[in-house]
Amino acid sequence: MQLKQVNTEFWVADQITTQDIELIAARGIKTIFCNRPDGEGPDQPNVAEIEQALQPYGIQIQYLPVVSGKVTDEQAEEFKHLYLQAQKPLLAYCRSGTRSITLWALSQVTDQTLEQMLLTARTLGYDLQGVIPRILKQSAHAQEHIPKLSVVIVGGGAAGISVASSLLSRQPNLDIAIIDPAEVHYYQPGWTMVGGGIFKPEKTVRTMASLIPKQVQWIKAAVAAFDPDNKQVLLEGCKPLNYEVLVVCPGLKLNWHGIEGLVETLGKNGVTSNYRYDLAPYTWQLVREMKRGKAVFTQPPMPIKCAGAPQKAMYLSADHWQKQSVLKDIQIDFYNTGAALFGVPAYVPALMEYVKRYNAHLHFNHQLIKVDGRQKRAWFKQLNGESGPIIETDFDMIHVVPPQQAPDFIRASNLVDQAGWVSVDQHTLQHTQYPHIFALGDVMNAPNAKTAAAARKQAPIVAVNVLEYLQGGANFAQYDGYGSCPLTVERGKIVLAEFGYGGKLLPSFPKWLLNGEQPTRLAWLLKEQILPPMYWDGMLKGHEWLVKPKR
Question: Which residues are in the FAD/NAD(P)-binding domain (predicted)?
Answer without folding.
Answer: 150-269
